[in-house]
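Limitations

Structures in this collection are predictions, not experimental determinations, and the ligand pose is part of the prediction. Treat each record accordingly. The example that follows, with flavin-adenine dinucleotide as the small molecule, is included so readers can see exactly what is and is not provided: the inputs are given verbatim, and the output is the predicted complex.
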Amino acid sequence: MPTASQHRASRDGYRPIRVSIEFFPPKTDEMEQILWKSIERLAPLQPKFVSVTYGAGGSTRERTHNTVARMVRETGLKPAAHLTCVDATRDEIDAVVQSYWDAGVRHIVALRGDPADGVGNAYRPHPGGYAQTSDLVAGIKRIGDFKVSVSAYPEKHPEAASLDADIDALKAKVDAGADQAITQFFFENDIYLRYVDKVRAAGIDIPIIPGILPVQNFKQSANFARRTGASVPYWLAARFEGLENDPDTRRLVAAAVAAEQVLDLVDQGINDFHFYSMNRSDLVYAICHLLGLRAQAPKVEAAKVEAAKVEAAKAA
Ligand code: FAD
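Predicted complex:
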């Protein structure tokens, strides 16, 4: 019998864990194959939703639309399309939103986006565009009854004057109709937990879903963190030290590090997670398994089986 001191929520038999998984639209045929293989592997875990990022430039944007539309057509998944205000008029953005609605998409991750001339430059809204994310959120809600997710920054957005100013910006997005927020990734759970306390104290009551980046390549993740304002703790660097030329051990360490972070959050009462998958399925699949998620027949397949049963019964 476990003693009281051994009790941990992450070891309970049943917890209502919900996960969502983020992908980016592939640029090459090879990347496209990797993406769809990952989706095939992760789909049976029945994530609450999967999201597809949105970039600058027409061809990237088309790839997002095509990926999301294919998810709707060919899988039982509920995709969320990311959308930014960058370099487009309101009419252009509204047309994209309408095209998502027409394709059966009902969830949008609404973002301001990074400056068109690169991170680090000052952001200038398009003269005929949505000036800030809260305006985009309101615009999306006017077009259709979409669920709208927005970003949140536990370590503040690099451009924000202070964490309080950043939380004010989040409040504006919530007041405009945002239904939930997904955080930038972080590696210290205390940073997230303290942030959620501050957000609640500011009167914001929407879900703040932790964004988790399983570290597949430490150097790459550390660079990514530097650009986004996320801090990289010394102990994380130490865990990957000396493994630069040892991909097998690196993968095992990566799984252990991600598992430690996520299971600790479960122990802290967190039940929803958003994974930045980098289009790879192995780490995310393993973490979901640890969280208690098990593969189930994809809904589309299950629906086909049901339809076949009905046909067979009719024929009998
Ligand atoms: P916002 O939260 O709107 O704010 C950006 C900055 O402006 C903050 O500093 C905020 O404090 C400040 N601000 C906002 N409104 C006001 C105001 N009224 N007054 C004063 N200051 C204000 N980028 C992409 O290009 N494509 C993607 O698909 C994508 N997906 C993402 C998904 C998630 C979950 C996250 C966390 C980020 C994503 N990004 C993506 C990155 C994002 O576009 C950048 O971080 C961008 O610089 C800011 O966009 P935002 O919507 O997060 O900004």
